[in-house]
Protein backbone atom coordinates (compact mmCIF):
# COMPACT_ATOMS: atom_id res chain seq x y z
CA UNK A 1 0.00 0.00 0.00
CA UNK A 2 1.37 3.43 -0.95
CA UNK A 3 1.70 5.90 1.90
CA UNK A 4 0.07 9.31 1.74
CA UNK A 5 2.48 12.06 0.61
CA UNK A 6 2.65 13.85 3.98
CA UNK A 7 3.40 10.61 5.84
CA UNK A 8 5.99 9.55 3.30
CA UNK A 9 7.70 12.92 3.61
CA UNK A 10 7.94 12.70 7.39
CA UNK A 11 9.27 9.17 7.39
CA UNK A 12 11.73 9.89 4.62
CA UNK A 13 13.03 12.94 6.41
CA UNK A 14 13.63 10.98 9.59
CA UNK A 15 15.36 8.24 7.66
CA UNK A 16 17.89 10.31 5.76
CA UNK A 17 18.56 13.77 7.17
CA UNK A 18 19.55 15.14 10.54
CA UNK A 19 16.33 17.08 11.01
CA UNK A 20 17.66 18.87 14.09
CA UNK A 21 19.91 20.85 11.75
CA UNK A 22 17.36 21.43 8.99
CA UNK A 23 16.06 25.01 8.89
CA UNK A 24 12.69 24.25 7.34
CA UNK A 25 11.16 21.42 5.40
CA UNK A 26 8.91 22.40 2.50
CA UNK A 27 6.39 19.69 1.57
CA UNK A 28 5.25 19.67 -2.06
CA UNK A 29 2.37 17.54 -3.33
CA UNK A 30 2.54 14.99 -6.11
CA UNK A 31 3.72 16.45 -9.45
CA UNK A 32 1.52 19.24 -10.80
CA UNK A 33 2.61 18.26 -14.31
CA UNK A 34 4.91 15.69 -15.91
CA UNK A 35 6.12 16.62 -19.35
CA UNK A 36 9.18 16.88 -21.59
CA UNK A 37 10.02 20.45 -20.64
CA UNK A 38 13.26 21.78 -19.11
CA UNK A 39 13.38 25.59 -19.05
CA UNK A 40 16.99 25.64 -17.81
CA UNK A 41 18.64 23.09 -20.11
CA UNK A 42 16.28 23.40 -23.11
CA UNK A 43 14.52 26.78 -22.95
CA UNK A 44 11.91 27.31 -25.64
CA UNK A 45 11.93 23.74 -26.93
CA UNK A 46 10.80 20.23 -26.09
CA UNK A 47 13.12 18.59 -23.59
CA UNK A 48 15.05 15.40 -24.30
CA UNK A 49 13.36 13.49 -21.45
CA UNK A 50 10.38 13.60 -19.10
CA UNK A 51 10.44 15.59 -15.85
CA UNK A 52 8.19 15.74 -12.79
CA UNK A 53 7.46 19.36 -11.79
CA UNK A 54 6.56 20.82 -8.41
CA UNK A 55 5.98 24.41 -7.27
CA UNK A 56 4.47 27.40 -9.03
CA UNK A 57 2.06 26.57 -11.84
CA UNK A 58 3.50 29.22 -14.17
CA UNK A 59 6.03 26.64 -15.40
CA UNK A 60 6.74 26.87 -19.13
CA UNK A 61 9.44 26.21 -21.73
CA UNK A 62 10.25 29.94 -21.77
CA UNK A 63 10.34 30.39 -18.02
CA UNK A 64 11.14 33.67 -16.29
CA UNK A 65 11.04 34.89 -12.72
CA UNK A 66 8.03 37.06 -13.58
CA UNK A 67 6.15 34.09 -15.04
CA UNK A 68 6.68 32.13 -11.85
CA UNK A 69 5.61 35.09 -9.73
CA UNK A 70 2.41 35.21 -11.84
CA UNK A 71 1.54 31.62 -10.85
CA UNK A 72 -2.03 31.22 -9.63
CA UNK A 73 -1.15 28.33 -7.29
CA UNK A 74 1.76 26.27 -6.04
CA UNK A 75 1.99 22.59 -5.19
CA UNK A 76 4.26 23.45 -2.24
CA UNK A 77 2.97 24.64 1.11
CA UNK A 78 4.47 28.14 1.47
CA UNK A 79 2.53 30.81 -0.40
CA UNK A 80 5.54 33.14 -0.73
CA UNK A 81 7.43 30.48 -2.69
CA UNK A 82 6.40 30.12 -6.34
CA UNK A 83 9.69 28.50 -7.38
CA UNK A 84 9.87 25.56 -9.78
CA UNK A 85 11.51 22.30 -8.73
CA UNK A 86 11.92 19.34 -11.07
CA UNK A 87 13.58 15.93 -11.45
CA UNK A 88 13.45 12.99 -13.89
CA UNK A 89 10.57 10.53 -13.64
CA UNK A 90 10.94 6.88 -12.62
CA UNK A 91 9.63 4.03 -14.80
CA UNK A 92 9.18 0.30 -14.27
CA UNK A 93 10.29 -1.88 -17.18
CA UNK A 94 8.28 -5.09 -17.05
CA UNK A 95 10.79 -8.00 -17.33
CA UNK A 96 8.22 -10.12 -19.14
CA UNK A 97 6.70 -7.69 -21.66
CA UNK A 98 9.54 -5.17 -21.86
CA UNK A 99 7.01 -2.34 -21.58
CA UNK A 100 7.42 0.78 -19.43
CA UNK A 101 5.02 2.04 -16.74
CA UNK A 102 5.33 5.29 -14.80
CA UNK A 103 5.97 4.82 -11.06
CA UNK A 104 3.88 6.90 -8.60
CA UNK A 105 5.57 8.97 -5.93
CA UNK A 106 4.56 10.62 -2.67
CA UNK A 107 5.53 14.15 -3.63
CA UNK A 108 8.70 16.19 -3.22
CA UNK A 109 10.15 17.27 0.12
CA UNK A 110 12.56 20.21 -0.11
CA UNK A 111 14.84 20.97 2.82
CA UNK A 112 15.96 24.60 3.11
CA UNK A 113 19.08 24.22 5.26
CA UNK A 114 21.19 26.86 6.99
CA UNK A 115 24.47 25.05 6.48
CA UNK A 116 28.05 26.24 6.24
CA UNK A 117 30.50 28.46 8.11
CA UNK A 118 28.83 31.61 6.73
CA UNK A 119 25.60 30.98 8.64
CA UNK A 120 25.18 33.40 11.57
CA UNK A 121 24.63 30.46 13.91
CA UNK A 122 28.22 29.41 13.06
CA UNK A 123 29.64 32.90 13.51
CA UNK A 124 29.42 33.87 9.84
CA UNK A 125 28.09 36.91 8.03
CA UNK A 126 24.76 35.29 7.24
CA UNK A 127 23.08 33.52 4.31
CA UNK A 128 21.43 35.27 1.39
CA UNK A 129 18.13 34.67 -0.39
CA UNK A 130 18.20 33.53 -4.00
CA UNK A 131 18.02 36.60 -6.27
CA UNK A 132 15.23 37.02 -8.87
CA UNK A 133 15.95 34.94 -11.97
CA UNK A 134 18.46 32.66 -10.23
CA UNK A 135 18.53 29.02 -11.31
CA UNK A 136 20.79 25.98 -10.85
CA UNK A 137 21.09 22.24 -11.38
CA UNK A 138 22.76 19.31 -9.67
CA UNK A 139 23.55 15.88 -11.05
CA UNK A 140 24.11 14.88 -14.67
CA UNK A 141 21.57 13.01 -16.84
CA UNK A 142 24.40 11.49 -18.90
CA UNK A 143 26.17 9.79 -15.98
CA UNK A 144 26.09 6.00 -15.80
CA UNK A 145 28.78 5.35 -13.18
CA UNK A 146 30.72 6.97 -10.35
CA UNK A 147 34.23 7.76 -11.58
CA UNK A 148 36.02 9.93 -9.00
CA UNK A 149 37.81 8.66 -5.87
CA UNK A 150 35.62 9.22 -2.80
CA UNK A 151 36.64 12.36 -0.90
CA UNK A 152 38.76 13.90 -3.67
CA UNK A 153 37.03 17.19 -2.90
CA UNK A 154 36.84 18.71 -6.37
CA UNK A 155 33.55 20.21 -7.48
CA UNK A 156 33.10 17.36 -9.98
CA UNK A 157 33.68 14.69 -7.32
CA UNK A 158 31.39 16.41 -4.84
CA UNK A 159 28.79 16.57 -7.60
CA UNK A 160 28.85 12.76 -7.67
CA UNK A 161 28.53 12.49 -3.89
CA UNK A 162 25.64 14.97 -3.94
CA UNK A 163 23.48 12.28 -5.56
CA UNK A 164 22.94 9.49 -3.03
CA UNK A 165 19.71 7.76 -2.09
CA UNK A 166 18.14 5.40 0.45
CA UNK A 167 16.28 2.10 0.12
CA UNK A 168 13.55 2.38 2.77
CA UNK A 169 12.63 -1.00 4.33
CA UNK A 170 11.24 -0.03 7.75
CA UNK A 171 7.97 -1.88 7.07
CA UNK A 172 9.93 -5.18 7.17
CA UNK A 173 12.71 -6.68 9.26
CA UNK A 174 15.22 -5.75 6.58
CA UNK A 175 17.53 -2.78 7.29
CA UNK A 176 17.31 0.34 5.13
CA UNK A 177 20.52 1.27 3.32
CA UNK A 178 22.10 4.11 1.35
CA UNK A 179 23.59 3.73 -2.11
CA UNK A 180 24.85 5.47 -5.24
CA UNK A 181 23.03 4.65 -8.46
CA UNK A 182 20.17 2.20 -7.94
CA UNK A 183 19.71 -0.40 -5.18
CA UNK A 184 19.60 -4.13 -5.88
CA UNK A 185 16.65 -5.12 -3.68
CA UNK A 186 13.03 -4.18 -3.31
CA UNK A 187 12.51 -1.09 -1.13
CA UNK A 188 9.31 -2.06 0.61
CA UNK A 189 8.72 1.41 2.12
CA UNK A 190 9.89 3.28 -0.97
CA UNK A 191 12.88 4.30 -3.07
CA UNK A 192 13.93 7.58 -1.43
CA UNK A 193 15.82 9.48 -4.14
CA UNK A 194 17.84 12.39 -2.78
CA UNK A 195 20.14 15.17 -3.97
CA UNK A 196 22.07 18.14 -2.61
CA UNK A 197 22.17 21.46 -4.47
CA UNK A 198 25.18 23.79 -4.50
CA UNK A 199 24.99 26.48 -1.79
CA UNK A 200 27.63 29.00 -2.95
CA UNK A 201 27.14 31.65 -5.66
CA UNK A 202 29.59 33.80 -7.62
CA UNK A 203 27.46 36.84 -6.82
CA UNK A 204 27.24 37.93 -10.46
CA UNK A 205 25.62 35.41 -12.79
CA UNK A 206 22.06 34.14 -12.40
CA UNK A 207 22.96 31.25 -14.71
CA UNK A 208 25.98 30.07 -16.71
CA UNK A 209 26.42 28.33 -20.08
CA UNK A 210 26.79 24.92 -18.40
CA UNK A 211 24.23 25.89 -15.69
CA UNK A 212 26.82 24.90 -13.05
CA UNK A 213 29.79 27.29 -13.12
CA UNK A 214 28.01 30.17 -11.38
CA UNK A 215 27.47 28.01 -8.27
CA UNK A 216 29.60 25.66 -6.16
CA UNK A 217 29.15 23.06 -3.44
CA UNK A 218 30.15 23.69 0.15
CA UNK A 219 33.52 22.12 0.98
CA UNK A 220 31.77 19.20 2.71
CA UNK A 221 28.70 19.30 0.40
CA UNK A 222 26.33 19.40 3.38
CA UNK A 223 28.45 21.85 5.40
CA UNK A 224 31.79 23.65 5.36
CA UNK A 225 33.06 26.69 3.47
CA UNK A 226 32.31 28.38 0.17
CA UNK A 227 35.27 28.61 -2.24
CA UNK A 228 36.75 32.08 -2.84
CA UNK A 229 35.44 31.97 -6.41
CA UNK A 230 31.87 31.70 -5.12
CA UNK A 231 31.78 33.86 -1.98
CA UNK A 232 28.02 34.41 -1.60
CA UNK A 233 26.50 31.84 0.79
CA UNK A 234 22.95 30.67 0.05
CA UNK A 235 20.43 28.44 1.77
CA UNK A 236 21.27 24.86 0.82
CA UNK A 237 18.53 22.93 -0.92
CA UNK A 238 18.13 19.19 -0.42
CA UNK A 239 15.48 17.22 -2.39
CA UNK A 240 13.77 13.96 -1.47
CA UNK A 241 11.28 12.05 -3.62
CA UNK A 242 9.93 8.69 -2.42
CA UNK A 243 8.85 6.37 -5.23
CA UNK A 244 6.37 3.53 -4.68
CA UNK A 245 8.38 0.72 -6.27
CA UNK A 246 6.89 -1.91 -3.94
CA UNK A 247 3.68 -1.81 -5.99
CA UNK A 248 5.57 -3.71 -8.71
CA UNK A 249 7.42 -6.20 -6.47
CA UNK A 250 5.44 -9.28 -7.45
CA UNK A 251 6.30 -8.71 -11.12
CA UNK A 252 10.09 -8.79 -10.78
CA UNK A 253 10.79 -11.01 -7.77
CA UNK A 254 13.89 -13.09 -8.48
CA UNK A 255 14.79 -10.96 -11.52
CA UNK A 256 17.28 -8.09 -12.00
CA UNK A 257 16.44 -4.51 -10.93
CA UNK A 258 13.75 -3.30 -13.40
CA UNK A 259 13.44 0.46 -12.76
CA UNK A 260 14.87 3.21 -14.96
CA UNK A 261 14.96 7.00 -15.01
CA UNK A 262 13.20 8.76 -17.86
CA UNK A 263 16.58 9.95 -19.21
CA UNK A 264 17.33 6.44 -20.58
CA UNK A 265 19.10 5.50 -17.33
CA UNK A 266 18.95 1.92 -15.93
CA UNK A 267 21.91 2.57 -13.57
CA UNK A 268 20.53 5.34 -11.35
CA UNK A 269 23.65 7.49 -11.63
CA UNK A 270 21.87 9.93 -13.97
CA UNK A 271 19.44 11.18 -11.28
CA UNK A 272 19.48 15.00 -11.23
CA UNK A 273 17.47 18.01 -10.16
CA UNK A 274 16.73 21.59 -11.18
CA UNK A 275 15.70 24.75 -9.31
CA UNK A 276 14.34 28.01 -10.76
CA UNK A 277 13.80 30.69 -8.14
CA UNK A 278 10.28 32.07 -7.80
CA UNK A 279 10.44 33.31 -4.20
CA UNK A 280 9.26 36.61 -2.86
CA UNK A 281 12.90 37.48 -2.21
CA UNK A 282 12.22 39.89 0.65
CA UNK A 283 10.09 37.29 2.41
CA UNK A 284 12.76 34.60 2.07
CA UNK A 285 15.47 36.94 3.38
CA UNK A 286 13.21 37.96 6.27
CA UNK A 287 12.69 34.31 7.12
CA UNK A 288 16.42 33.56 6.90
CA UNK A 289 17.18 36.41 9.29
CA UNK A 290 14.34 35.92 11.76
CA UNK A 291 13.12 32.29 11.79
CA UNK A 292 16.06 30.46 13.30
CA UNK A 293 15.73 30.73 17.06
CA UNK A 294 12.75 28.87 18.56
CA UNK A 295 12.89 25.09 19.14
CA UNK A 296 10.30 24.45 16.41
CA UNK A 297 12.16 26.67 13.95
CA UNK A 298 15.44 24.93 14.72
CA UNK A 299 13.72 21.59 14.14
CA UNK A 300 12.71 22.56 10.63
CA UNK A 301 8.97 23.01 11.21
CA UNK A 302 7.90 25.33 8.42
CA UNK A 303 4.70 26.38 10.23
CA UNK A 304 6.88 27.87 13.01
CA UNK A 305 8.16 30.68 10.78
CA UNK A 306 5.84 33.66 11.22
CA UNK A 307 6.90 35.09 7.85
CA UNK A 308 5.26 32.27 5.91
CA UNK A 309 1.65 31.81 4.86
CA UNK A 310 1.05 28.06 5.01
CA UNK A 311 -1.16 26.51 2.34
CA UNK A 312 -3.21 23.42 3.34
CA UNK A 313 -2.05 20.17 1.76
CA UNK A 314 -5.48 19.64 0.22
CA UNK A 315 -5.04 22.92 -1.66
CA UNK A 316 -1.54 22.18 -2.92
CA UNK A 317 -2.65 18.76 -4.12
CA UNK A 318 -5.20 20.44 -6.41
CA UNK A 319 -2.64 22.74 -8.07
CA UNK A 320 -2.00 22.00 -11.74
CA UNK A 321 0.20 23.69 -14.33
CA UNK A 322 -1.50 26.49 -16.25
CA UNK A 323 -0.69 24.70 -19.48
CA UNK A 324 0.70 21.34 -20.54
CA UNK A 325 2.97 22.25 -23.45
CA UNK A 326 3.97 18.73 -24.49
CA UNK A 327 1.04 16.33 -24.74
CA UNK A 328 2.01 12.70 -25.29
CA UNK A 329 1.56 9.27 -23.75
CA UNK A 330 3.58 9.09 -20.52
CA UNK A 331 1.80 6.65 -18.19
CA UNK A 332 2.19 3.34 -20.00
CA UNK A 333 2.30 0.50 -20.52
CA UNK A 334 4.27 1.58 -23.58
CA UNK A 335 7.08 0.13 -25.67
CA UNK A 336 9.50 3.05 -25.24
CA UNK A 337 10.18 5.93 -22.88
CA UNK A 338 8.87 9.37 -23.83
CA UNK A 339 11.18 11.07 -26.31
CA UNK A 340 14.14 9.21 -27.76
CA UNK A 341 15.58 7.36 -24.78
CA UNK A 342 16.92 3.88 -25.54
CA UNK A 343 18.38 2.44 -22.34
CA UNK A 344 22.13 3.07 -21.99
CA UNK A 345 23.99 1.04 -19.37
CA UNK A 346 27.38 2.78 -19.38
CA UNK A 347 29.78 2.83 -17.68
CA UNK A 348 30.68 5.73 -19.97
CA UNK A 349 28.44 8.76 -20.31
CA UNK A 350 25.21 8.27 -22.22
CA UNK A 351 24.31 10.02 -25.45
CA UNK A 352 21.26 12.25 -25.09
CA UNK A 353 19.46 11.73 -28.37
CA UNK A 354 16.97 14.01 -30.06
CA UNK A 355 14.13 12.93 -32.34
CA UNK A 356 16.31 14.02 -35.26
CA UNK A 357 19.12 11.54 -34.50
CA UNK A 358 17.15 8.85 -32.71
CA UNK A 359 18.56 5.35 -33.26
CA UNK A 360 15.29 3.53 -32.45
Compact summary:
This protein has 360 residues and is α+β, with helices and mostly antiparallel strands. The chain has six helices and 17 strands.
Fold and architecture overview:
The chain has 360 residues and is an alpha+beta fold. Helices cover 12% and strands 21% of the residues. The strands form 4 sheets. A 6-stranded antiparallel sheet has the order 1-7-15-11-9-10, with helices on one face. Strands 2-3-4-17-8 form a 5-stranded antiparallel sheet, with no helix packed on it. Strands 6-5-16 form a 3-stranded antiparallel sheet, with no helix packed on it. The chain is globular. The relative contact order is 0.24.
Could you give a short account of the major beta sheet? 6 strands, antiparallel
| Number of strand elements | 17
Which strand-content bin applies to the residues?
15-25%
Q: Structural class, from secondary structure content?
A: alpha+beta
Order of secondary-structure elements: HEEEHEEEEEHEEEEEEEEEHHH
Gap between N and C termini: 36 Å
Nearest-angstrom radius of gyration?
19 Å
**Biggest sheet strand line-up:** 1-7-15-11-9-10
Poorly predicted parts: 1-22
The helicity comes to 10-25%
Question: Mean of residue pLDDT?
Answer: 92
Quickly count the helices. Answer: 6
Which word captures the global form?
globular
Task: Write out key terms for the chains shown.
alpha+beta, six-stranded antiparallel beta sheet
Give the helices and strands, then pairings:
Layout: H1 5-16, E1 24-28, E2 33-35, E3 51-55, H2 65-69, E4 84-88, E5 90-93, E6 100-102, E7 105-113, E8 135-139, H3 155-161, E9 165-168, E10 177-179, E11 190-196, E12 200-201, E13 215-216, E14 232-233, E15 236-243, E16 259-261, E17 272-276, H4 281-290, H5 295-298, H6 313-316
Antiparallel strand pairs: 1-7, 2-3, 3-4, 4-17, 5-6, 5-16, 7-15, 8-17, 9-10, 9-11, 11-15, 12-13, 12-14
